[in-house]
Design brief:
With 449 residues, the protein is mostly helical. The protein has a single domain, classed as Hydantoin permease. It is built from 23 helices and no strands. The protein is globular, with a radius of gyration of 22 Å. It holds the Pfam family Transp_cyt_pur.
Length: 449
């Protein structure tokens, strides 16, 4: 009798023997995911914003280490139990409360899906207009890339990880070429940006917060990818995340910095085009941006959204993939990304995502000592994670208080929201507030009988 095929795209736990990814595949997937224009823009924007070169490099290094660290420590629920993020949330938020927390996660995911696709369309449009004198066709390119995303993700996680790992080498080779091009063709005068005092204060920490917030979503649902990884242990996760995130992250920030120094342009795409030695480079740049944005979107946007829609709307993976793509168009990224309020939008959603991460880590490592009950996680009628009508009062009170702290210091929202909520949640859990709500609910039902 043949062994029943394991659904790698569903919500049920994946046993270690059925997982398709080794740590090397995992690293390649993250390399292709982290090499994106959004991370490159950190270097250009921060240098233009008043920090000096040393401070921008420090922001890149610190934010890269933070992202890798939190991806690692938040991956263990997926590694150990093979569960996706939306199931992991039930231990702290309750089986109904998890859906609220997940909606707060997938809204920015869908927005970034649209933005990543739009950046790819802008790259195609710019190259086609510059090299071939074609008319502006941003929207046809945008819809074409949206269809490409659906095609590549339609069959599930195995195709996504295969595509990402395969094109990672191509992306890295092009990235090395960009380094060479900037060093040879760019007018690199660092003195202007090394002699300014910059800031080691709010501006510096605001830069770290904004850079880290770029991947606030990825740090939250890293278990979605880690559940595909074997062997499922801490060493594998550490190697995969630190080798997969920090090198490309720092490289992209540094390239963005070099582009701004060489051209004075805070648009990385336009800056690279200004350094282009010949038309062939334009085509190489277009290929790079398309591959970089697609691989990033597949891992950081399509995967979590498609899993979420299975739980929220009881739909199949394939339907979730199509819905994710459709909603990414509805977000109108051509307006969102160009808006003066874009970074405010990023800080607002970080005001919730930082606290949610704080709750997850406090719950898993401090409250539960790294132990979950998978049977109870999937039991919606009873069990340890039912709480008060399916919601954990401790988690929601902590999240709201943490979000208020973040809103009060919006420019460093993620940096203050995460640690404050971490502490608040532990104090609330230790106070027994969940049990008090639960016992009060039981008593009221008994009295009413």
């Amino acid at each position: 009798m043949s062994k029943k095929a394991v659904d790698l795209n569903g919500l049920n736990p994946i046993s270690e023997s059925d997982r398709p990814m080794t740590w090397k595949t995992y690293v390649l997937s993250f390399w292709s995911t982290a090499i994106i224009i959004q991370v490159m823009a950190i270097g250009t924007f921060l240098l233009q914003g008043g920090l000096n070169i040393y401070q921008v490099i420090a922001v890149g290094v610190i934010s890269g280490i933070l992202v890798a660290t939190f991806c690692t420590v938040n991956s263990f629920a997926g590694l150990k139990y093979g569960i996706p993020f939306i199931i992991q949330l039930r231990s702290s938020f309750g089986y109904r409360g998890a859906k609220v927390a997940y909606i707060l996660r997938i809204v920015p995911a869908i927005c970034w899906y649209g933005i990543g696709t739009w950046l790819g369309a802008l790259a195609i449009n710019q190259v086609m207009m510059t090299l071939f004198n074609l008319p502006e066709m941003k929207f046809p390119y945008f819809f074409f890339l949206t269809v490409v995303h659906i095609f590549l993700s339609y069959r599930g996680i195995k195709d996504i990880t295969w595509f990402n790992a395969t094109v990672a080498t191509v992306i890295c080779v092009i990235l090395i070429y960009f380094f060479y091009l900037i060093l040879v063709n760019g007018q690199l005068d660092f003195t202007k940006y090394t002699n300014i005092p910059g800031s080691w204060g709010w501006l510096f920490f605001g830069g770290i917060s904004a850079a880290t917030a770029n991947w606030a979503t990825v740090m939250l649902n890293n278990s979605d990818l880690a559940r595909q990884l074997r062997p499922g242990n801490g060493k594998t996760s550490f190697l995969g995340n630190f080798a997969g995130i920090i090198p490309p992250w720092i490289s992209m920030v540094f390239i963005g910095l070099l582009i701004f120094v060489a051209t004075g342009n805070d648009d990385p795409i336009a800056g690279l085009m200004a350094l282009a030695p010949n038309p062939t480079f334009g085509i190489i740049l277009m290929i790079f941006i398309i591959l970089a944005q697609i691989t990033s979107n597949l891992t950081t946007s399509v995967l979590p959204a498609a899993l979420a829609f299975q739980d929220l709307f009881k739909m199949k993976w394939t339907t979730g993939v199509i819905l994710s793509a459709s909603l990414s168009v509805v977000t109108m990224p051509w307006i969102l990304f160009s808006s003066q309020w874009f970074f405010t939008f990023q800080n607002i959603y970080s005001s919730f995502l930082g606290p949610i991460l704080g709750i997850l880590l406090a719950d898993y490592w401090i409250i539960r000592k790294g132990k979950l009950n998978p049977d109870h996680l999937y039991n919606k009628e009873s069990g340890a994670y039912r709480y008060f009508k399916g919601f954990s009062p401790a988690a929601f009170i902590a999240m709201i208080l943490g979000a208020l702290v973040s809103f009060s210091l919006l420019k460093v929202a993620w940096l203050v929201g995460f640690p404050s909520t971490f502490v608040i949640y532990i104090l609330l859990k230790k106070s027994g507030i969940d049990e008090k709500f639960q016992s009060g609910h039981v008593e009221s039902k008994t009295v009413g009988m």
